[in-house]
Amino acid sequence: MKDMLDRLVHLQETDERIVAFQIEEEKIPRELEEREHDIVEEEGRLDQVRTSLEELEERIMSLNREVEEVKDHQRRCQARALAVKTQREYQAVQREGEIARKRRGELEGQIREVQEEKDPLEDSLLEMESRLEELMKTLKKKQTEADSRLRKIQDEREDLQKTREVEASLIEPDLLAKYQRVFDRYKGKGVVRVSGGVCNGCFMTIPPQLYNQVLAHGGVHNCPNCGRSPDRRASSARPASDLARRC
Questions:
Q1: Residue 31: inside a domain, yes or no?
Q2: Cβ–Cβ contacts within 10 Å for residue 82, how many?
């Protein structure tokens, strides 16, 4: 039974390495997804800035058209002022020209305000485009690294799986089935140590009689505090620190 416990310990070490590879294999795509999410968010912010700039540009174009219309009106007023024959007509044309001049000033002021709002957005757009380009370069690099790492993990995991098949074949079927149930249940711990009468799986004190059996015989046992019955097949001595079995 001492040899059987050694085989279980070796099997668990192999299983733990396999699980570690599986965790890493699942983690790599998630990290790439997070980077892709960052890019999608940056693209969304970039689209918002571009939309705002387009709206401001349309506003500037509209104001410029109004300015040109006012300029044309001013020129017509100037031409009419030269052709009027009475003082009253001249004053009317002058008032009309003054109104056009004020309107032109208002429009040009609005253009300056919109331009002042537009300038920082253009600067932000350049920064965001640069940041997005850098994010995409980084993602491409990480994707290449991830593909290489995944291939390596899969190869190493396949080799470990072959090793596991050999190790598992050396363990009694009933014991192997119990170990597998416990390993799956506790996500990676089917065999744990006992020290000072305490199971290092559930951190509960095991019965003194069972602990004495552990000290005297070693072998494979079940911790009753975790819900399993003791395995009475133990027959060979082994240090207590190596042998408790968790359920």
A1: yes
A2: 8
Based on the fold, state whether residues 32 and 122 are members of the same structural domain: yes
Asked if the structure places residue 247 within a domain, the reply is: no
**Contact between 66 and 110 (Cβ < 8 Å):** no
Mean pLDDT, rounded, of the chain? 85
Statement to judge: residues 154 and 138 lie in one domain: yes
Domains in the chain, number? 2
E strand or H helix at 195, and its extent?
strand 194-195
Could you give the CA distance from residue 105 to residue 67 in angstroms, rounded to a whole number?
9
Angle at the Cα of 50 from the Cα atoms of 142 and 114, rounded to 5 degrees: 145
Q: Provide the b/e sequence for 148-184 (b: ≥16 CB within 10 Å).
A: eeeeebeeebeebeeebeebbeebeeebbebbeebbe
Tell me the one-letter amino acid at 189: K
User: What is the span of the domain harbouring residue 135?
Assistant: 2-169
Q: How confident is the model at residue 5 (pLDDT cuts 50, 70, 90)?
A: confident
pLDDT for 219 equals 64
Give the DSSP per-residue string, 48-96. Answer: HHHHHHHHHHHHHHHHHHHHHHHHHHHHHHHHHHHH--SHHHHHHHHHH
> Residue 246 class from Cβ within 10 Å (0-12 exposed, 13-18 middle, 19+ buried)?
buried
Per-residue pLDDT tens over the stretch 106-124: 999 999 999 999 999 999 9
